Amino acid sequence: YDRYAIVRIDGKEVDRFNLDQEAEMEKTYYPANGQYNIVQIQDGKIRVKEDNSPDQIAVKTSWISKNGQTSICLPHKLVIEITQEGADDAFIN
Question: Measured between alpha carbons, how far is 50 from 36 in angstroms, rounded to an integer?
Fold first, then answer.
């Protein structure tokens, strides 16, 4: 089953990446004026590489790759969640 990383900002899905197919990627999100999050995918893992939030919790969380894991940047309302195809994803909606 393929694993997907779902990126949400303020509860809305903005991106969905297949971690089993996406080789390497880096993308910058701007959740609000003056806020940024640099998200990186590498070797089947995803992380917030850098952001300008005060607490740096998502950056400190580092790489996530397993079904159900999350990386959360609360001040920016940015959440990355790993979900697996075929796994029970009823909780996502």
Answer: 8
Q: What are the tens digits of pLDDT across the range 20-55?
A: 999 899 999 999 999 999 999 999 999 999 999 999
* CA pair distance 51, 36, nearest whole angstrom: 5
Helix (H) or strand (E) holding 27: strand 24-29
Q: Report the alpha-carbon distance of residue 3 to residue 87 in Å, rounded.
A: 10
Angstrom distance (rounded) from CA 46 to CA 32: 22
H/E element, 60: helix 57-61
CA distances from 88 to 13, 15, 19 (A): 18, 20, 18
Per 3-state DSSP, what percentage of the chain is helix, strand, and coil (rounded to 5)?
A: 10, 50, 40
Question: Residue 36 in contact with residue 30, Cβ under 8 Å?
Answer: yes
What pTM did the predictor assign?
Answer: 0.90
